[in-house]
Amino acid sequence: MPTPTATAGRASHAHRDLTGYYDALASQWAERKNRNYFDGIIRLCRFLVPQGSRVLEIGCANGDLLAALNPAYGVGLDLSSRMVEVAQKRHPHLRFVRMDAHEIEPHPALAEPFDYVILSDLVGDLYDVQAAFQQLSKVCHSRTRVIVNFYNYIWEPVLKAVERLGLKTRQNLQNWLTHQDLENLLDLSGFEVIRGGRRMPLPLHLPLVSEVVNRLVELVPLLRRLGLQQYLVARPRPAGERPRYSCSLVVPCRNERGNIASVVERTPIMGTRTEIIFVEGNSTDGTLEEIRTVIARYRGHHQLKLIEQGEGRGKGDAVRKGFAAATGDVLLILDADLTVAPEDLPRFFDAIESSTGEFINGCRLVYPMEKEAMRYLNLLGNKFFSKIFSWLLEQPIKDTLCGTKVLLREDYERIAANRSYFGNFDPFGDFDLLFGAAKQNLKIVEIPIRYRERSYGSTNISRFRHGWLLLRMCLFATRKFKFF
User: How do the pLDDT tens digits run along the chain, 484 residues long?
Assistant: First the structure.
């Protein structure tokens, strides 16, 4: 069995070899072969990392990837001193430091934690991947996202052949790691994988052909596994003392007069303060008057508010107006039809407060439903859209259209600030929030609930008209999530 001294000696030798290799390549790194592959990495990271974030890239090479992300504050670390010199000359507005990924040391450039930490094509070069991952906690806060992209191991013989033909820059001996290998190593190092995927089954640039093939293959489940680029997005595993949050419950309501009092009576007190906001959508059954009566009757029971939707239309508009008026740390949505019981809401609040998830979605498709609770065509539609969403979001989503959703207000504000990426065309608000949560790399968790039959009124949903709109929305989102 090797002694620790022998192991350390081999690691030191490997580091010297790697340093020499990248020192020699530093001056010509920008002209390296197969630019199409590296442009693909830039597009991926731009999709995953919002502009204006605090970004650290470990194994930054000449700094081009870091600069392409337009960080508010960007730092690059690299083992090669020549690479650091080249990077600093190319991008003087960023900070570059010579440092080993296996031992991140205190440095003025690393005085505060980062929002995103990127390891791009680095894990193949690392002597000890787990040791390097364990160092990441030094530069992370509780909401940091770690992005790891790496080669697909099934391409090893092809890439070796391409290197021998001189069509690819020759690399040192690589670690060929699978998704499962890296998920396990991240887990051992205190990180939880949120999402992951594969891209670019045809990395060579062939005019028109490459783009068409890469886009079409992305739609075929088995062929997607051939993607050369693999990536994972992870977060630090929740730890430490739980925060104490206040909450705002937004209740969109249209023609729900018979349920208003029950919402107030049945909603438990959650967190340090519970606020209930009714958003009334131009009802014709006296819902507006009933809300005013209930607010007067139950004053002091909860903090109660009324927002009139006015000229706005649809649940999505109602939710956005309710969220804009909310003052709580945690935002919850409850449909006024009470097909989801208000008594279940503390489960959602607890999942946020414990950091089990960052976007909590109800799931009506686990427990048996009451008779007529969800008509058959609605059920089929939910299952269909759940398959599409699980593919798009790279996180399992079973019930896309459950009205009960919960997230932190600060996360919603980020979603709202980036809403223009998808456009404001979702009348329900469900897809707007789910897409936005995935774009912000939030951990999505579903909580099973029992879906009950309505006790008052009838559904405001037109199955066929809205179903067609949702299908068009998914096609649009496919382009935004998969063909960026």
Answer: 444 444 444 556 567 778 887 888 788 787 766 778 888 899 999 999 999 999 999 999 999 999 999 999 999 999 999 999 999 999 999 999 999 999 999 999 999 999 999 999 999 999 999 999 999 999 999 999 999 999 888 887 877 787 777 766 777 777 889 999 999 999 999 999 999 998 876 777 777 777 777 777 777 777 777 888 899 999 999 987 888 999 999 999 999 999 999 999 999 999 999 999 999 999 999 999 999 999 999 987 789 999 999 887 888 999 999 999 999 999 999 999 999 999 999 999 999 999 999 999 999 888 776 665 556 776 677 778 888 888 888 999 988 888 899 999 999 999 999 888 887 767 778 888 999 999 999 999 999 998 887 666 665 555 566 667 678 778 888 888 888 7
Question: Based on the domain organization, do 154 and 254 belong to the same domain?
Answer: no
Q: Distance of alpha carbon 312 from its chain centroid, rounded?
A: 29
Residue 241 falls within a domain, yes or no? no
Q: What is the dihedral of CA 253, 255, 261, 265, to 10 degrees?
A: -40
Name every residue whose Cβ is closer than 8 Å to that of residue 288 and which is 6 or more positions away in sequence: 280, 306, 308
Q: Dig out the tokens for 396 from the structure.
A: 């399992």
- Residue 346 resides in a domain: yes
Closest Cα to residue 48, out of 109, 117, 135, 110? 117
User: Taking the model in full, what pTM does it have?
Assistant: 0.89
| Domain carrying residue 181 | 4-236
460, 384: one domain: yes
Question: 272 near 243, Cβ under 8 Å?
Answer: no
Residue 242 inside a domain? The answer is no
**Domain shared by 93 and 192, yes or no:** yes
Residue 113 in domain: yes
In the structure encoding, which two tokens stand for residue 95, read together? Answer: 């900070």
Query: 274 and 354: one domain?
Result: yes
Residue 448 is part of a domain; what is its CATH number?
3.90.550.10
Strand ranges (E), 100-139? 114-120
Amino acid at 37: Y
Where a domain ends, among 236, 265, 299?
A: 236
